[in-house]
Amino acid sequence: MPQRSSNQLGVTTLEDISALILQSHDLTETLRNIVTLVAKRMGTEVCSIYLIEEDGETLRLRASKGLSRRAVGKVALKIGEGLTGLAAEQRRVVAIQEPQSHPRYRYFKETGEERFHSFLGIPLFDRKTPIGVIAIQTKATRQFSSEEISALSTIAFQVSSIVVNARLLDSIRLKEEETSRFARELEQTRKSFLNDSRPAGEVREKALRGRVAYPGVVSGLAHVMDEKLGFTDILDEAGVDVGKERERLEAALEKTRIQTIFLEKRVAERLSQDDAAIFHTHLMILEDRGVLEKIHREIDSGHSAPYALKKIFGDYIDAFKRMEDPYLRERAADMEDIGRRLLANLAGQESHVLHLKGPGILVAREILPSDMAALDHEQIRGIVTEAGEQNSHAVIMAKSLGIPALVAVRGALKEVVPDENLILDANSGYLYVAPTQRVIEEYHRLEEDCSREQHKLEEFREQQGRTSDGIRVVLRANIGLISDIDVALRNGANGVGLYRTEFPYMTRASFPDRDEQYHLYRRVVEGFGGQPVTIRTLDIGGDKALPYFSPPREENPFMGWRSVRVSLDNRDIFRTQIEAILMAGQHGPVKMLFPMISSLEEIRACKAVIAEARANLRREGVGFAEEIPLGVMIEVPAAVMLAPQLALEVDFFALGTNDLIQYMLAADRNNPLVNKYYDPLHPAVLGALRQVTRVAKKLEKGLCLCGEMGSDPITFLALVGMGIREFSMPSPFIPRTKALLKTISAREARRASKEILAMADSQQIRAYLQRELKKSG
Q: Where are the alpha helices (DSSP H) in 71-145?
């Protein structure tokens, strides 16, 4: 097999295969796309997929890259027949040179495969049941290496799940096609008798796609949120009494302001003050002189109050939606939220929000902050919206509540009727409407498996993280919301390794003052009862913007004015946050972390601001922690190279691997054009991590890894082997990581790390680590 770049196999191939089902229209197209991709990545002339038919005995060629097109769908053989049948029969890898000489070889005129001199076949399984075979062939005689066989085995595992899911979706589509003609005829007959245009008895099963906003799998009845008093419902009125319309508007404004204060209080009690902060913004809009003057001018021109609201709020909504900045674009929802509540109060109607009579899945065009505040969260098992914003306030609230959510689900309101059975798979991005018994049973099995796994993990929550040979590994939580505290504690986190402080800034109409920040940080520190909390200073810019602080327009904001650079250029804002962190340090062990440090000058400038903050607090007689550990994020290549010098300035390092990998490999993982180059096991990345780890150990500095590499078992094994003994990760990963540690020997991990650091190919590295994990069980 010729040498190829590290992105051609391993994790990028699996990611690409997973994405294929979203690009395909049916099972046939999915399989065709898979074989084309695998042949290219494996460097072979042929890749074919055979699937076992319903009789459980016949293997039929369903897709091929390299064999004759005429053979697809025609060539079939029994299990045990030919080399492909041998792989299915014996449920093992079959790797053969000169396959024509093998006694099991079977010749098919249609395929033209007599030209090929090497064969590798690997069975596909659904759980333990064979469902097919994936095979590759080459014109040249080739001895497939153990690394290649391991790589294709990993791909086969992923292909199996794709095939199972694609078959399920395909069966749903076929059923829809079979019943659509009958449904249309029945609908015409019943329309004259029924108000509901959906025919009784119609086979309804559908699978709708969406984007995952928060993962999880839930089932339940549909709670469909109706959109009453939308702006499109408002018509202008002739001959209005201007005075009365102004009075109506003032009464509605006053009632809406009172409601907004109530909503803020309710969300603060249920979630946190940060989550409720958006209603501060709503109140400011309701009292904004410019907005009110525009509405009054419309009324004075002879228009009704509802029409004036529609006109002015509609203009604001359109303006926000046209903005390029994603955060500002999402603020259109806030204007719509306020406008809708004003309209309801003008019309003298109660809120449109559902009164949920039982647990279920909420389906809506868009869920606004006031909806999330008014609804009974205990009755919401999942959320589905047609609107596509993944960072709206409502979605952020859903995340803080741990509610699985899908956004951008086209046609959800059209396809779902109230109280209909739904399955929300917010892991793979599907909403199943009126699922058949087959789908229900499959997901019931999945839920039971998950439940059993969670039950097994319960024993690890309160245990310390230790390897099988007794080495302690500390597992801390990444948090961003007050509601994350309970989640972290429930999952057995040893404090906080990364507290992202951006969210309190994002939900306010202006920069929070020192006392606001102090009380927030104090609550977090006290919430962890003496366990350390690492607070990262404000990290905005790039993909994170504030509505009241617009950065300059840049060609490449990720490489521009962001993070600590913004803080140092806005020293007053920076100093205010540092003062609040120092004050919170009185209430428990706090560490202060500076993001995106790339030079000694930057960390020294940060320390100068700390000195100013301490002087201010002393002058005011305000109590604070005199000594607090300081750290820097190692997330740009410059920081890696300067690690020995930086270590002399700080007490600890935090490895931000997500950004470090992107910057080292010049690959934005969110950019579909280049995300295949984003590779955590790239030898250069591993070398950089090893370099920082050695510096920290030699100079006795703390080291915590905060990126997603800590949540992946394969990369976790390598990191433990390098000597990293502290990780910070999303809380739900902590129990399973403690369980994983029980199977890992630190001594064996060190040996594995030494081996991979000598390798120059990430495909080889991944295959090796996979084998080591399998050995550990």
A: 82-90
Integer angstrom CA distances of residue 114 from 67, 110, 137, 717: 10, 11, 11, 44
Is-contact 617 624, C-beta < 8 A?
A: yes
Catalytic residue among 47, 606, 704, 706: 706
pLDDT grade for 153, boundaries at 50, 70 and 90? confident
Domain ranges for the chain: 6-172, 204-227+355-449, 239-346, 462-743
Helix-helix angle 305-322:332-346, to 10 degrees? 170
Tokens linked to 630: 């300081």
Cα–Cα distance for residue pair 567/606, rounded to 1 Å: 9
Q: What is the pLDDT of residues 398-411, one digit of tens each?
A: 665 668 888 889 88
Residue 461's contacts (CB-CB under 8 Å, 6 or more residues apart) are 490, 491, 492, 734, 735, 738
Per-range mean pLDDT, top range of 69-73, 151-155, 714-718: 714-718
CATH class for the region spanning 6-172: alpha beta
- What backbone phi and psi angles, to 5 degrees, belong to 230? -75, 165
Residue 472: CB partners within 8 Å, gap ≥ 6?
464, 465, 466, 725
Mean pLDDT is lowest, of 245-259, 262-276, 663-677, 703-717, for 262-276
- Distance, first Cα to last Cα, the chain: 30
pLDDT computed for residue 121 by the predictor: 94
Average pLDDT over residues 293-311: 86
Q: Which CATH superfamily is domain 462-743 in?
A: Phosphoenolpyruvate-binding domains (3.20.20.60)
- The model's pTM: 0.55
Amino acid present at 286: L
Of residues 406 and 532, which shows the higher confidence score? 532
Asked whether 483 and 253 are in contact (CB, 8 A), the reply is no
CATH superfamily of the 239-346 domain: PtsI, HPr-binding domain (1.10.274.10)
Pairing of strands 206-209, 430-433: antiparallel
| CB distance 488 to 259 below 8 Å | no
Closest CA to 634 of 623, 650, 616: 650
Separation between Cα atoms, residue 511 and residue 548, nearest integer Å: 8
Q: Residue 393 catalytic?
A: yes
Judged against a pLDDT cut of 60, whether residue 78 lies above it is answered with: yes
Report the percent of the chain where pLDDT is more than 90.
36
Q: Which residue has the higher pLDDT, 259 or 752?
A: 752
Catalytic residue among 393, 606, 682, 704: 393
Task: Name the nearest CA neighbour of 656 among 674, 672, 673, 640.
Answer: 640
473 contact partners, CB below 8 Å, separation of at least 6: 465, 466, 467, 720, 725, 726, 727, 741
CATH superfamily of 204-227+355-449: Phosphohistidine domain (3.50.30.10)
